[in-house]
Amino acid sequence: MLNYSTVFKLDYDVDSLLKWRTVIMEHQDPKHSEWILEHLDLNAMTIDQMPFKIMPDELYEDVAKAVAPINIIKDEHCCSIERLKPNTRVELHIDHSMNFTAGPLVRKTNVLFNLSDRPCHIIHEEESENKSFSKGEILILNVTKSHGADNSDCDEWIDLFGLNLRMTYSDTVEYFKTLL
Q1: Considering the entire predicted model, what is its pTM?
Q2: What is the pLDDT of residue 98?
Q3: In 81-168, which residue ranges form alpha helices assigned H by DSSP?
Q4: Per-residue exposure over 152-176, b if at least 16 CB sit within 10 Å of its own CB, e if not
């Protein structure tokens, strides 16, 4: 099995995920601020991450329907909106160095849903492992391995919805094989 990323075709509700993009990006809850990255603005991308357990019920239910048949565990999983800025490149990095290693935001694997009309290009240290994925596809990304993204040839933002199921990369890939 490849250790970097895997693309699967999956029928998910893009419109529902887009509807909630702004809510997720602007959510603020002082009681839980230690677990919310309300808005992380990096050189080439933005990340807004939220645990499902603090989401409004309507948002949680809509997101769970939009990504069905994926089983979302409200008390355990979290989601993110990740936006690649136009004409930029996210340099190779490992998420552990971004301090997502403790609490509910721990990340071993990220399941990314492309919400844009343009393909998203994920890059890896091993160039032969680079992947592109489009709307209607998901990319399972091993964030413990060096990865980045290349949006340098695009004048538009690329919007991604991310799921953190708190599983290893290989467990996540095997789980998705049971769904397809």
Answers
A1: 0.88
A2: 46
A3: none
A4: eebeeebbbbbbbbbbebbebbebb
